[in-house]
Structure formats: C-alpha cells, structure tokens
Amino acid sequence: MGHARVYMILVSTMMIWGVNVSLIKILVEHFLPVTITALRIFTASLAVFLTLAITKQIRRPQGKEWGYIFGGALLSVVCHHYFLAEGLTKTSATNAGLILGLGPLLTALFATILLKGKLTVARWIGFLLGGAGVSFTVLAGKTGISAITAGDIDIFVAILTQALSFILIKKASATLDPRLLTGYMLLFGSIILFMISLWMEPQGLAHLSAAPPFVWVVFFFSAIMATAFGHMIYNYAIGKIGAAEASIFMNLSTFFSLVGAAVLLDEALLPAHLIGFILIVSGVLLGSGSLEELWRQRKQTIQIQKRS
C-alpha cells in the first residue's frame, strides 16, 4: 500500500476518532467509566479477531512478541483508556483537547530518542504548526483554559502512555502484523481493565440495564468502528510510515471532535475553528512528510523528462 493511500485512510480514521470523543462522553454519562471502557474494548477485540479469522491472519505470537503485546496492552489500552476515561470526568473539554494535542510531539520525541529516528526541519515545523492549530481550535471562543485539575494530570498520563505504546507497536511490526497485535492488545487490556473495574466500580455491571437503546447503538459504533477498526488501521499505518509520521494525523481528530460535538451534542462550531483547521492541515502536510515526498517525486519526474 502506497503512502498516499495510507494518508487518506488515516484522515478517515481521524474523522471517526474525532466523533468518538462525543460518543465516549455520552457513554460515561450513562455508565461508570472504567466498566464501560473495559466492555467497549473487549467488544472491539472480538471484532478484530473475527475480521482476522475471516482473512485467516490469526497466529500465535512467538518469543519476544509476547512482551510487545503485554507492554502495548498496558500502555495503549489499560493506562491510556483508564486515565482518559477518568480524566474526562474531572476536567474541561478545553483542557483535555490542549493536553491531547501534545501526543504527536511526544511521539516524535520518543521516536527520535528510542528509535533513533531523524526528523527534518520541515517535519518539526509541521509538528509545531499542528500543535498551534490544536491550541487555536480548542481555545476559539473561550476566555482561556481552566485551572489545572487532577483530571488534567490524568489526561497527560493518558497521552504519555499512548505515545510510548506507539514506539512498541513500531518495534513489534518488524515481525508481527500490527492488526493482529491490535487484537491481542485489546483483548488482554480489556481483561485487565475489567478486573480493575470490579475493584473500583463494584456496581458497574448493575448500571448497564438502565441505559436506553440509543446508548447501546453508540456503544457498538464506538467499539467496532472507532476502537476495533480505528486502532487496526492506525497501528497498521505505524508499521508502514512510522510512529512519528502517523501521530501527526492525530491533530486532525481535534477538529473533527469539534464537528462531532456540534452535530451530536449541540456545541458551538465557530468560524475561528477554520483557522485552527488550516494550521492543523498545514502541520499534517509537513509533519507527515507528504509534501517532501511529493517534492521528491516531482524532482524525479523532471530528471526523467530531461534525460528523455
């Protein structure tokens, strides 16, 4: 699969993830957060394994692959989703949006240090533009961010552990299909989260019967489309184009989350958000390396034409 196609699929995934922020808000308003998160991720793992079974891509991991699976499950599933669910119940959407916007920069930093990756000046500018776009987007129409709360710390831990998990996923992709890795990570992570929920939320399962039918529609869409297929696609992209390059697309989810909130939660979508969107897209084009790739292709085309 060419990089251009991977980029297009990542944009579509970010649209789904952006809408999923509003869906998660709906879920945590009707259920206890850790319990519903564990069930949502377990449902996602079943969807992933069903898909892989149909395509005959399931195999038993070997050797150090188990280490990547459990490490990824703890970082990307247990820690990220636990602290995200907890944080969203204790902090403002503005603060959460700004902190989550640090994800691409943290991933680029870890990729440079741990994977010994090299990012060009253009790509670093792209990451900074993307961060500025996220900040502009979430602060548009606001008087400023609220005071730092315990929820803000939870959100930061959530994005920090996710950034570290992307490095593990990139390492594991050398021998293990990222889509199969996703299934194992979601399965083991959901089991650990469920055990945590039994301790923290002993009445969590009892709350499930009180939800109206439309909430269960939200649950299955979030679990299957956003968590199962979304993470399969995203982790596959990490294996193809790299952790830092894929992470820059996460900035797009901030804008799409605002669109989703406007449609699903009747929150305001302001003209100033368009400026933030332009900054984010500019950051994605530079940070992902797509402009550099187009420039290289153009130079090669010109050289071929000169030779002919």
Give an account of the 3D structure.
- With 308 residues, the chain is mainly alpha-helical.
- The chain has one domain (3-307).
- Helices cover 79% and strands 0% of the residues.
- It contains 13 helices and no strands.
- It has helices at residues 3-30, 33-54, 65-88, 93-100, 103-114, 121-139, 150-172, 178-200, 213-241, 243-247, 250-264, 272-287, 290-307.
- The chain is globular, with a radius of gyration of 20 Å.
- The two termini are 29 Å apart.
- The mean pLDDT is 80.
Key features of this structure:
308 residues; mainly alpha
Q: Span between N and C termini?
A: 29 Å
Structurally, how many domains make up the residues? 1
Q: Please give the number of β-strands.
A: 0
**Helix-and-strand structural type:** mainly alpha
Low-confidence stretches: none
Q: Helical proportion?
A: over 70%
- Tell me the fraction of residues in β-strands, as a range: under 5%
Main beta sheet: none
The SSE string, one letter per element, is: HHHHHHHHHHHHH
- The 3D shape can be described as globular
How would you state the average pLDDT, rounded? 80
Number of helices: 13
Tell me the Rg in angstroms: 20 Å
Please write out the topology:
Blueprint (H helix, E strand, L loop, with lengths): L2 H28 L2 H22 L10 H24 L4 H8 L2 H12 L6 H19 L10 H23 L5 H23 L12 H29 L1 H5 L2 H15 L7 H16 L2 H18 L1
